[in-house]
Every structure is written in C-alpha cells, then in structure tokens.
Amino acid sequence: MFRPAPASFRAQAAIIAAASLAVVGLAAFIVIDVINKTEGALLADAVQTCVSACQELQVQYEERTKYGGDLLQNLPLDAQDLSLTGVSATVLRAFEGVAGGIYLPEKDRVMAWASPSEPSTSRPRPRGPRFDFIHALAERAAATNGVATLTRRLDTGFAIVGAAAQAKSGNAVVCTMKRASLTRNPIAETERWWLAVLVLFTLLGMLGIVSIWYMLHSGVAGIRRGLRRLEEDFAYRLPTIRGDLGQIAMAINGMAERRMALEEELRRQDRLVALGKVVSGVAHEVRNPLNSMKLTLQLLERRLKKGMAVSHEIEEALREIDRLDMIVGRLLAFGRPTMTDRQVQNLAPLVAQAMKMVQEPARNKGVLITVQHPGDALAVDVDGPQIVQVLINLLLNAIDASPPSGTVRVDAEHRERSVRVVVSDQGPGVAEEAKAHVFDAYYTTKPSGSGLGLAVSREIVANHGGELEFETNSSGTNFILLLPVDRSCSL
User: Fold this and answer.
1) Contact at 8 Å (CB) between 150 and 158?
2) Mind listing the domains of the chain with CATH numbers?
3) Are the CB atoms for 123 and 110 separated by under 8 Å?
4) pLDDT at 7 over 50
C-alpha cells in the first residue's frame, strides 16, 4: 500500500522561508551597520571640521584683539560686531558649510557671526534653536580647557555639530557649527535603496516559493490519489499534471501499462507452469505402476519361454493396471486423494508388495534390501494401495542414495497408538541447503527426478492422520513413517 513521504512540502517551504528571512535579516543588519558607520564617519568629519575652524577663528580673534587693544574694546558693540564679522567671514571661507562667531556670556549675545554659504540674515536669533545650541556649547567650553564639541540630532533627519573654545583675552567664547544632512547623504541613500531592492526581491522570492509549494503540493496530492486508485483499479490512469510532476505522472501511467502487460504474460506463464506441473505429477504417479507392470511382464515372458508360467503373475499385472487406473482417476479429479479402500489391515503384506516392486532397480545397482518386523502384530488403519505407493517412493529414494553393494533397511515396530516404519540407507546424507526443501513439491537433486515423490507421500500420510519425517547425517538418512492403528488416533 502506498505511504506518503515523511517530509512534507509544507515543512520544506517553511524552512526555505525561514532561511530567506534570515538572509534578509542578515542583509538588513549589515546595511544598517554600514549606514551607522557611515553616519558616524560623516559626523566625526563634521566635528573635526568645526574644531579646525574654531581653532583658526580663535587664533585670528586673539590676534585682532591683541593689536586692536583698547581701541577695539572702547567701540560700541555694533561697531565691534561689524569689525570682527569680516575676520569670521575670512576664516570660515576656507571651511565649507561651517558658520561661526563669538558669544559674549555677559551680554548673552552672539556677534561677529559669519556663514559664507548662508545669507547674512541667518544670524542666530535669541532663544532660537541655534542660539540655544551655541549657549550649550559655551557652557561646555567654560568647563573645558581645550575645544569643546557637541552633536545634536534633529527630528528632521539632520544633525548639528559644533565646537567652542574660551578666548584667552576678553570674556568671549569662539563658536563654530555645521549642519550635516544624514538622510540625504549619497552613500546612505544608496545603501537604503539596496536594502529596499533586497527586501523587494526577497518578498518576490517568498511569493515564488509559496506558489511553487502550492503547485508541488497539489501535484503530489494528485499523484497520491492516483496511486491509491491504482491499488484498487489497475486500469485507472493518472490525469494530466502541469510541470515536471506531469512527467512523473506519465511515467507512472507507463509503468501501469507495462505492469498490466507483464501480469498478463505472467498469468499465461502460470497457466503453462500449472499445466507442466500436472503433466509432471501424472508422469510421476503413473511411472511406478508402469515399471511394476513391465517387471511382472518381463518375468512372465521368461517363464513362458521356460514353460513355467503361473497365474498369480498375471494377477499382479492386472492389479497394477487397476492401481494405474485409480491413480489416473484421482489426478484427473484435481483434488486431494480420497481413501476408497481404507481398513484395518496388516502392514507386512504392504511392505512385501512395495519391496517386490523395487527389486529390479535394487538388483541393477547391487543394493540389498532387508526387512525386520514382528509380522502379524503390525495392524494399521490405512488405504493399502496408497501406503504401498508411499513405501515404493521411500525405497526408490533409498536405493538411489545408497552406494553400489549397499544395504537398505526396513524396520517396523508396533507402538501404543501407531506403527513406526523406518527406511534407512547408507548414502552421504541430505545436504544442509536441501534439508528445508526435502518435502517441497518439484524440488529435486536428481537429474531425472520430478520432485513429487516425497511431497505426494507426505500428503498421503497426512491424510491418514500420520507423520512422515527424516533424520540425516554423513552415514545415511532415515525416513520415519508413523501410521495410526485406528482412524480415531491423532498423531
């Protein structure tokens, strides 16, 4: 019966989807890390630019106050602002995007502000965001001997960086600042676009995986249903399936066609084999009576030539003809042999009759047959002709197995509920690989054997309620026949 595969397409699709998501997550982590590092590098560069501009502006402011002296200090604040603005503009022109000036903590005022890249009206207004940023820078500078820096990220995606230093002369703080546009940075924008493209293609890939899984799942489900139908109906054929699974369905249909053709051929061969078995069975069962008739007629011919013919030899030939007719009738019935002449009788005459039937092949090979039994005490409830047939088969096998000038022994004894007959030979014994097949029909180790003698004999004995077994070793083989003394006995 067909069984589904242990691994389902759903589990495989889930694994592929999880792997895809892991790849996306890893790629996103890498991209974000690159963006963060890039933004950090840009902010660090902007801070360094502001520090350099602050230091240069501090130097120029110190020189101007040094040489201007009291004259500069005595000017009104607006005049000082105008005078120093030129200095700031000249210095900051060398630093792109940097604005700066001087913060007076006592006045809480920004003066000398210059921004070469912005209009002059861009001066920080009191309480404005940039003014607050400058105020925070000045506080840091007051607490620091060197240059103080400050970075502030804005919600708009920009960042403001600045640097400030306490002037050595006068109560003033030199400040510079720069705005960094992180979201519009070309490198960051490129990375974000790559991330977006990666996510898009990943989603498309996942959709493709889902669609492929659905096609495979439906196709495999159809093949499973078709295989289950094929188990019940060999004439059924799988429907057409799209894709590569369609090739599998076509291959299964082709296999089903070949299977039907092979089964038809096997049925034909089985019929021929069955016919051959019947012919072999008929030939085997008929051969023994024919051999017996031939031997009897040959003996009768010799005695006729000598003028010593006796009537009982003709009776024996006629009896064998009757037995032959009985065997052919049973074989034509194709059923289990029936016992038409079963009765309680002495086994000794049956043994003697079987020995007489095998005297010719025993004499040709030089084998001596000896018998030992208590005579009239061997009463058994059997069908005489069938038991004679069994004894003939056992004796012929013993003669074949014995060496020239060997001895075949027939020992019979009475037991409580049965009679035990042992037919022994002096052959090499049954080969190890043949022991399990001794009683199998059509199994034989003889070149001209049919393999039916022991199989038929065991069936006959079993129909009588008896047993037929064997013992073997390198010194010979013993076939042990147990026959019931009464048909009510079960051995």
Assistant:
1) no
2) 9-189 (3.30.450), 259-335 (1.10.287), 342-491 (3.30.565.10)
3) yes
4) no
Mean pLDDT of 338-345: 78
DSSP secondary structure letters along 326-350: HHHHHHHHTSPPP-SSEEEEEHHHH
Q: So what's the pLDDT on residue 236?
A: 81
Rg value, the chain, Cα = 59
CA-CA distance, 457 to 484, in Å (whole number)? 15
Torsions phi, psi for 483 (to 5 deg): -120, 140
Of 369, 354, 370, 363, the residue nearest 289 (C-alpha): 354
How many other C-beta atoms can be found within 10 angstroms of the C-beta atom of residue 225? Answer: 13
pLDDT tens digits along 16-33: 667 677 776 777 777 777
Beta-carbon count within 10 A of 331 CB: 16
List, in sequence order, every residue forming a beta bridge with 484; answer none if it has no partner. Answer: 418
Contacts of 40 (CB under 8 A, 6+ apart): none
Determine the number of helices (DSSP H) and then strands (DSSP E) in the chain. 10, 12
- Token representation of residue 362: 């025993």
Structural contact between residues 222 and 82, judged by C-beta atoms closer than 8 angstroms: no
pLDDT in tens, 345-402: 999 999 999 998 888 889 989 999 999 887 667 889 999 888 998 999 899 999 999 9
Is the CB of residue 89 less than 8 Å from the CB of residue 56?
no
Token pair of 297 as six digits: 């007629």
Give me the half-sphere count of Cα atoms (radius 13 Å) on the Cβ side of residue 226: 22
Mean pLDDT of 98-116: 85
Give 342's strand partners. 383
- β-bridge pairing 368-372 and 407-414: parallel
**Judging by DSSP bridges, how do beta strands 109-114 and 148-153 pair with one another?**
unpaired
